[in-house]
Amino acid sequence: MSKAAMLATLFIASIIAACSSDPTSASASTPPARNTQTLVPPTGTSFPPTPTVDLATILISIVEPRLFGSYPSPDGSWRVEVIIYDCAPIDPEQPRGNSLEQLFLVTEAGGKKTLLDSQLLNCGGLGASGLEGLFWTSSSSYFYYTGTREGVPDGCGFWQGLMDRINVSEKSTEYVGAGPVSPSGDLIATWVDHDLTLWKLDGPRFASITHPIPEAIPGPIAWSPTSEAVAYLLSEDYCPLGLTYLVIMDLDHLSPEIVLSSSSPSFANIAWEAPNRIVLEDEEAGHWAYNPALGTLLPKTK
């Protein structure tokens, strides 16, 4: 048995032993109870909570932390750190062990650390996980990061890594969702559940609009080259996609419009290459050009 496993076993055993002692238990001479009737305790009776084992605390006590990433702010006042405690066998139900990842906001002046996010992970598990910094805003007011650094969710279909952000002044985090930054560099369009959500990169969320097909599945988003509109895809299913929709919404009116629906082909990806040229990729990797001004769809030619 490894040193980490031995320490973890002793740590857990000591917790269970301490919590399982019962000073009011009957003496050894007391005969076993034979009444199988369910007894209801008197009103107001309280019992000690069931003991739990804090796996994160055990990992921190037996595993040497390592710095995964350090992200200094543009103004030099702050730093974000991602710390990882690598896999160790601390839970009998997880034979491959567990790991712990933590994200801290650090003041450069005094070195004070504030824990803002963490993930206790099953080593070798499925799904998307892992903390990683993405970028600071120019004002150092927000820091964007992901909790889906590695892997993908179970199943199939469109997937894009999720984002959260730190509000530095409030020392808090906020879920942003999945989506692209605008070409102008000051806006983000993301999916938060079935709502297309618009954010100022260095400021608050300013719009959240439910897409026009309630039962449809949100797909990839693309900004117009001028950052004045967004286009996105919706689909009937995951794989195959079935009936798909192209939706365009300008930022002045925030009213999504379905401009195209198609199941043969079904469209899986999108890029807004020029003001009147939206390129759609179908499930067979074919490419099509949609002209928003004319409403025409043609096979893309080089």
How would you describe what is shown here?
- This protein is mainly beta and 302 residues long.
- It folds into two domains: 53-178; 181-196 and 204-302, 6 Propeller (Neuraminidase), CATH 2.120.10.60.
- It is 9% helix and 42% strand.
- It is built from two helices and 19 strands.
- The strands form five sheets. A four-stranded antiparallel beta sheet has the order 1-2-3-4, covered by helices on one side. Strands 5-6-7-8 form a four-stranded antiparallel beta sheet, with no helix packed on it.
- The radius of gyration is 27 Å and the shape is globular.
- The protein starts with a helix and ends with a strand.
- 25% of the residues are buried.
Largest sheet entry:
4 strands, antiparallel
Question: What is the count of β-strands?
Answer: 19
Task: Provide the spatial order of strands within the biggest beta sheet.
Answer: 1-2-3-4
> How many separate structural domains?
2
- Molecular shape: globular
How many DSSP helices?
Answer: 2
**How do the SSEs run, as a string of H and E?**
HHEEEEEEEEEEEEEEEEEEE
Give the helix level as a range of percent: under 10%
Strand percentage lies at 35-45%
